[in-house]
UniProtKB/TrEMBL annotation:
CDD domains: PTS_IIA_lac. Pfam families: PTS_IIA (PF02255). The active site is at H75. Its cofactor is Mg(2+). Mg(2+) binds at D78. PANTHER family: PTS SYSTEM N,N'-DIACETYLCHITOBIOSE-SPECIFIC EIIA COMPONENT. Binds 1 Mg(2+) ion per trimer. Keywords: Magnesium, Metal-binding, Phosphotransferase system, Sugar transport, Transferase, Transport. GO terms for molecular function: metal ion binding; transferase activity. This is Lichenan-specific phosphotransferase enzyme IIA component. The modification Phosphohistidine is found at H75. The keyword Transport applies.
Length: 106
């Protein structure tokens, strides 16, 4: 297993997930809630792809096949954690925007 390629797969997918989450928030701020949902669904897919790679690493570790921990892998894990957190927060903020639009009668 090429640890650099694994780390970059996590970083790439997590980064895309985070970017899509914020794009969804911008759409919701404009009242484009269907588009926001679509973007969040895409963000979840990218997050699941990154998480799948991470899960494979964890399973390998559990099977006694140790994983080299280096700065790149720590960086990748940070990206994944931030993508998950961003998506969860954006989901909540989208609901706030939806409620505000309803209260304003828009």
């Amino acid at each position: 297993m090429d640890i650099e390629a694994v780390a970059m797969a996590i970083v790439g997918n997590a980064g895309e997930s985070r970017a899509l989450s914020y794009e969804a928030l911008r759409a919701a701020k404009k009242g484009e809630f269907e588009n926001a949902k679509k973007l969040l669904d895409e963000a979840k897919e990218r997050m699941y792809a990154a998480h799948s790679v991470q899960t494979e690493l964890i399973c390998n570790e559990a099977d006694g096949k140790g994983v080299e921990i280096n700065l790149l892998m720590i960086h990748a894990q940070d990206h994944l954690m931030n993508a998950i957190l961003a998506r969860e927060l954006v989901e909540e903020l989208i609901e706030v925007h939806r409620e505000l639009k309803e209260l304003k009668g828009e």
